[in-house]
Each structure stands twice: as structure tokens, then as C-alpha cells.
Design goal:
Strand content: under 5%
Number of strands: 0
Structural class: mainly alpha
CATH class of one domain: Mainly Alpha
Length: 94
Amino acid sequence: MLENNMSRDELIEFLEVWLKNNYKGKKLLHFVESCMYESALVFTRGNQVYAAKIMGVARGTLRSKLIDYFGTTKVGSPWAPKPILQIKQVHNDV
């Protein structure tokens, strides 16, 4: 069972709906992973060490992902630019 009582099936349904409504060359993993990193940082109030532990990655990996996704490492912190959901566009076609 996922947090907030969202089941695996509900998450899959959400992702299917997202793909139907939003897929126009956007990468699903890019969308989901950027949301996960942002959520972890908002939850930890910008504490990158704690957020990295939650995500199961090294702090350096977290910082690299933040730069890739948001163009900054100041996500989820009190001084983060608003809105922080502006996801940097990925230009490589995989």
C-alpha cells in the first residue's frame, strides 16, 4: 500500500490517465521522478541529506537530478523560487 492510502492499482490508473492526457513527447519517468524529488524536498523543507535518504540515493545524485530537472538545487527550501513545479524540458530522445 502506498502512502496516503493510494493503492498500486490507483497509482497505475493515475499514470495511465496522465499518459493519455499529457503525453506529447514528454517522458513519464522524467515526470514521475521529478515529482518524487520535489515531494521529498518539500517534505524535508529542503534538507538534501534527509531527502536523499528518503529517495535512497546519494546526496550528490540528488543534487545532480535537481539541476537536471529544475535547473537549481534550491527545491523545497524556503528560498526556492515559486512555483517550483516548472520541470526543465528534456531534449534527448530515448
